[in-house]
């Protein structure tokens, strides 16, 4: 179907939150004329959120590198020679010092990432101590530690963990071209354990990995068909890192990235949609279009795990220019 043949927008209404999105419906959204798509996303955004507010999260790598998984985009995989050195889990005091700095920089949520396939129970105990310490500073907490068992998810919940990040990354069909060491179902199982434990879910994906338009449709359709939509939906633009299999991936048209944000906003209207990795190379104009299309969260700070992120001052200038402000908890 060409753009000229795209279906008209449905009548203006709040659209009930749905978990039964079909691929045909999601594909039709992607194919809307750009102004219609962005208008609809912006309309829904302001029905559920203040469109001038942006939730700000800071992400710290608490255990870097040496991961046995083979995610083709990831510089922390031990399978690729990317110059990232494997480190041990940070100690509690160092993590809390970073959390204090994040809070004074305006973050409301502190995310802790560890490059594990799945944590051992003693690792979970160490992370629980971090969660308790970070929460005591008045910050929301998020962790991304790899696959979890149901017991580990419950233990993290007892420590007070607010969010757990575990991305689906891409469509079920394209997934095997990106990761072979764990299955799509493994990911869905971890999401189920996290949800069942009562922890908020942070789950999204990455675009620009060489996937086709239909894979972006499949990724959003899968996210929007989870039994409960993730509370946070990070949409990442691939950061091409030398040494990873995706170092030479073709650049995705930035307008296609904006479309992905807009479709995520329409299909998951009450979720916080995070403009996540890849902002370092994104123009201010593209980022502004993403905010217009319903993105309402960013990662803030000079590094995203091991890849660069815009400096804080640059972000603050952009938010100021756009008249946006940090969402309070
Ligand atoms: S994305 Fe996570 S699981 Fe995959 S290689 Fe990197 S650290 Fe490991």
Uncertain runs: 1-9
Tally the helices.
10
Structural class: alpha/beta
* Helix and strand run: HHEHEHEHEHEEHEHEHEEEHE
Q: Gap between N and C termini, in Å?
A: 43 Å
User: What form results from the Cα inertia axes?
Assistant: globular
Number of strands: 12
The percent range for strand residues is: 15-25%
Main pleated sheet: 10 strands, parallel
Mean pLDDT level? 91
Instruction: Report the bound ligands by name, code or SMILES.
Output: iron/sulfur cluster
Radius of gyration: 19 Å
The share of residues in helices is: 25-40%
Describe this structure in words.
The protein has 329 residues and is α/β, with parallel strands linked by helices. Helices cover 37% and strands 15% of the residues. The protein has 10 helices and 12 strands. It has helices spanning 23-30, 34-48, 92-104, 121-136, 150-159, 184-196, 213-224, 254-267, 284-292, 312-322, and strands at 53-63, 109-114, 140-144, 163-165, 200-202, 205-207, 232-237, 272-275, 297-299, 303-304, 307-308, 325-326. Strands 1, 2, 3, 4, 5, 6, 7, 8, 9 and 12 form a 10-stranded parallel sheet that branches. It has a two-stranded antiparallel ribbon with strand order 10-11. Helix 3 (92-104) links the parallel strand 1 and strand 2. Helix 1 crosses helix 7. It is globular, with a radius of gyration of 19 Å. Mean pLDDT is 91; it is low at 1-9. Residues 67, 69, 71, 74, 76-77, 115, 146 line the site of iron/sulfur cluster.
């Amino acid at each position: 179907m060409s753009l000229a043949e795209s279906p008209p927008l449905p009548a203006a209404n709040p659209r009930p939150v749905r978990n039964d999105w079909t691929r045909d419906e999601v594909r039709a959204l992607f194919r809307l004329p750009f102004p219609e798509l962005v208008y609809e996303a912006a309309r829904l955004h302001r029905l559920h959120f203040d469109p001038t507010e942006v939730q700000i999260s800071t992400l710290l790598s608490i255990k870097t590198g040496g991961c046995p998984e083979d995610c083709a985009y990831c510089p922390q995989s031990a399978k690729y020679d990317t110059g990232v050195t494997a480190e041990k889990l940070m100690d509690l005091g160092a993590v809390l010092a970073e959390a204090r700095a994040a809070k004074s920089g305006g973050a409301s949520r502190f995310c802790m990432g560890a490059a594990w396939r799945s944590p051992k129970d003693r690792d979970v105990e160490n992370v629980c101590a971090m969660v308790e310490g970070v929460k005591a500073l008045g910050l929301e907490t998020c962790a991304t530690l790899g696959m979890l068992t149901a017991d580990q998810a419950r233990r993290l919940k007892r420590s007070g963990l607010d969010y757990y990040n575990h991305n689906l990354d891409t469509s079920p069909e394209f997934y095997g071209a990106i990761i072979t060491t764990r299955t799509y179902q493994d990911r869905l199982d971890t999401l189920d354990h996290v949800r069942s434990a009562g922890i908020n879910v942070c789950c999204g994906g990455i675009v620009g990995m060489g996937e086709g338009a239909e894979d972006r449709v499949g990724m959003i359709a899968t996210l929007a068909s989870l039994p409960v939509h993730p509370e946070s939906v990070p949409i990442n633009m691939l950061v091409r890192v030398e040494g990873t299999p995706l170092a030479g991936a073709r650049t995705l048209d930035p307008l296609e990235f904006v479309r992905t944000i807009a479709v995520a906003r329409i299909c998951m209207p009450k979720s916080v949609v995070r403009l996540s990795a890849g902002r370092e190379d994104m123009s201010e104009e593209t980022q502004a279009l993403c905010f217009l299309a319903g993105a309402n969260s960013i990662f803030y700070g000079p590094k995203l795990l091991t890849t660069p992120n815009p400096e804080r001052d640059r972000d603050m200038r952009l938010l100021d220019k756009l008249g946006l402000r940090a969402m309070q908890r």
